[in-house]
């Protein structure tokens, strides 16, 4: 399998997956995509049903990462989805009412990003070897909370990789701050900056593109790499859990092999739902993909009108990981449905004018695969309360957005096919918002809120969060934005 850029209008350059994972983004600014979708048949799915998650992951990744050996993929998958990292299993499906809720947050940081970030660092480390790269990778991350911790946990002590994370000192919750400050590992470093998330992000972008810093890094035998969701290495592992969930539902007798399954995904950067779309295009029996947005409903507008217009108010919501106005991975969908030239045109319109429009044919084509709904703040809270009161099922605000959209879709269409909903975070990651939704007063302190949520609901918080209060702080440095580059150089000199 070869990979090409979504903006390579001449289709001239084709790359192996190891190169693509090491590189992250194409030189023309496009995203890497597989040249074609590998096919899985009903027999393939049947065979996967008899396997465990690690085996399924190695098999499915092997369809895309054809330059990796089966041993390499099996090794990476078994290290990533181990019992230590995922005590309850890589994924858990809870049947709630008539919805199948696919909990993707049983990993070490209690958010779905662990599903990709536990394995991607291992794929990168192997890619460095495969590409004959003599330097080691330095991953730089600017985070508003969740991604930073998931990346740290994934890259900690992985060979030939180091990671440095910057977060806004006052822009993350106390629990998120402690998650990062207490990170273990000999190849990690964390620094808070005086400023907001945008300051951190533009600082990182400046450093990334600085020839001066790159040269200093090169002298130390290092090169920059990134951990964000435009990297194919983060997308590929997400395809696995949709196919795996289908197998689990067959095994549990919830569906018959061959039945179509609808899938709802609470969406931000469009990475998670795109993985489900790719699974469908590979041949997994999937009906509709329901794209669920919070109050930042740019994707709902896009799928209903064909206009993507980012010139609008940005809302900070209780589902912050979906507060996004540029859903980067939408570029891949646009490419799959058109070609590099048309796709590059949309992206040019977006960057120059903040808007692009797809024609009615293309919009109608998307409607065959997608439906889109949005859920405002009060509906999000109502959904959390409704599901707890009716089913004793506690969900986080991101998942609640998905549940609302799934139920709304069923109500409007009467579609009776089984519904899988991606659940993207543990409710305990957002204890304060969940308590408020349940009508409880919210303690000032994060850990008090966590304890109260546990007490009021009779549920148990994930150990990785409750044990944080006693963890040892390793990184408590706060720096100015202009000290970020020297911080990177210091880290490189170690
Ligand atoms: C990142 C994230 C999302 C959004 O996923 P995308 O792949 O960016 O669409 C949803 N929920 C949670 C909890 C997340 O961390």
Structure report:
This protein has 494 residues and is α/β, with parallel strands linked by helices. It has helices at 17-23, 42-49, 53-64, 70-80, 113-117, 120-130, 146-155, 174-181, 197-208, 211-219, 232-251, 271-282, 298-305, 330-337, 340-353, 360-369, 377-391, 397-413, 431-437, 446-457, 463-466, 484-493; strands at residues 3-5, 32-34, 92-96, 99-103, 136-142, 161-168, 188-193, 222-225, 261-266, 286-293, 307-309, 355-357, 370-374, 418-423, 478-479. The strands form 4 sheets. Strands 3-4-14-9-10-13 form a 6-stranded mixed β-sheet, sandwiched between helices. A hairpin with a 2-residue loop joins strand 3 (92-96) and strand 4. Helix 17 crosses helix 19. The two termini are 38 Å apart. The model has no long low-confidence stretch (mean pLDDT 95). Bound molecules: pyridoxal-5'-phosphate (PLP). Residues 111-113, 146, 229, 266-272, 321-322, 398, 424-425 line the site of pyridoxal-5'-phosphate (PLP).
Described by strand count, sense and barrel closure, the largest sheet is:
6 strands, mixed
Distance between the termini: 38 Å
Number of strands: 15
Shape annotation: globular
**Which ions, cofactors or small ligands are bound in this entry?**
pyridoxal-5'-phosphate
Low-confidence stretches: none
Helix content: 40-55%
Helix/strand structural class: alpha/beta
Strand order of the largest sheet: 3-4-14-9-10-13
- Mean of residue pLDDT values: 95
Number of helices: 22
Q: How much of the polypeptide forms β-strand, as a percent range?
A: 5-15%
Radius of gyration: 22 Å
């Amino acid at each position: 399998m070869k990979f090409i850029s979504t903006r390579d209008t001449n289709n001239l350059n084709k790359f192996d997956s190891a190169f693509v994972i090491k590189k992250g983004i194409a030189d023309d600014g496009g995203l890497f995509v597989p040249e074609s979708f590998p096919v899985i048949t009903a027999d393939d799915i049947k065979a996967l049903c008899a396997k465990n998650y690690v085996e399924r992951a190695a098999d499915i990744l092997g369809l895309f990462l054809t330059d990796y050996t089966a041993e390499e993929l099996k090794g990476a998958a078994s290290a990533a989805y181990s019992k230590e990292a995922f005590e309850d299993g890589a994924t858990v499906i809870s049947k709630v009412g008539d919805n199948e809720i696919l909990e993707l947050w049983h990993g070490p940081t209690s958010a779905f990003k662990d599903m990709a970030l536990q394995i991607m660092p291992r794929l990168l480390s192997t890619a460095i070897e495969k590409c004959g790269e003599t330097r080691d990778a330095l991953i730089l991350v600017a985070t508003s909370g969740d991604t930073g911790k998931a990346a740290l946990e994934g890259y900690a002590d992985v060979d030939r990789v180091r990671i440095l994370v910057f977060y806004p000192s006052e822009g993350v919750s106390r629990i998120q701050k402690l998650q990062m400050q207490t990170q273990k590992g000999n190849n990690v470093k964390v620094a808070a900056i005086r400023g907001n998330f945008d300051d951190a992000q533009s600082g990182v972008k400046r450093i990334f593109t600085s020839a001066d810093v790159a040269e200093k890094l090169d002298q130390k035998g290092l090169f920059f790499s990134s951990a964000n969701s435009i990297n194919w290495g983060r997308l590929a592992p997400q395809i696995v859990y949709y196919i795996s969930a289908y197998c689990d539902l067959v095994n549990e007798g919830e569906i018959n092999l061959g039945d179509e399954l609808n899938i709802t995904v609470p969406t931000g950067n469009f990475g998670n739902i795109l993985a489900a779309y790719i699974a469908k295009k590979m041949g997994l029996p999937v009906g509709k993909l329901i794209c669920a947005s919070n109050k930042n409903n740019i994707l709902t507008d896009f799928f209903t009108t064909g206009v993507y217009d980012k010139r609008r108010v940005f809302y900070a919501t209780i589902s912050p990981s979906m507060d996004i106005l540029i859903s980067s991975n939408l570029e891949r969908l646009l490419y799959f449905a058109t070609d590099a030239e048309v796709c590059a045109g949309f992206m040019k319109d977006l960057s120059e004018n903040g808007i692009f429009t797809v024609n009615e044919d293309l919009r109608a084509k998307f409607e065959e695969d997608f439906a889109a709904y949005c859920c405002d703040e009060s509906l999000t809270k109502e959904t959390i309360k409704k599901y707890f009161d009716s089913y004793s099922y506690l969900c986080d605000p991101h998942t609640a957005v998905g549940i609302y959209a799934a139920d709304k879709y069923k109500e409007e269409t009467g579609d009776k096919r089984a519904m899988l909903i991606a659940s993207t975070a543990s409710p305990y990651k957002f204890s304060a918002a969940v308590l408020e939704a349940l009508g409880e007063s919210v303690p000032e302190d994060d850990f008090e809120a966590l304890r109260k949520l546990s007490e009021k609901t009779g549920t148990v918080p994930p150990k990785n969060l409750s044990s944080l209060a006693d963890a040892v702080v390793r990184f408590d440095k706060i720096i100015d934005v202009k000290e970020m580059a020297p911080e990177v150089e210091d880290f490189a000199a170690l």
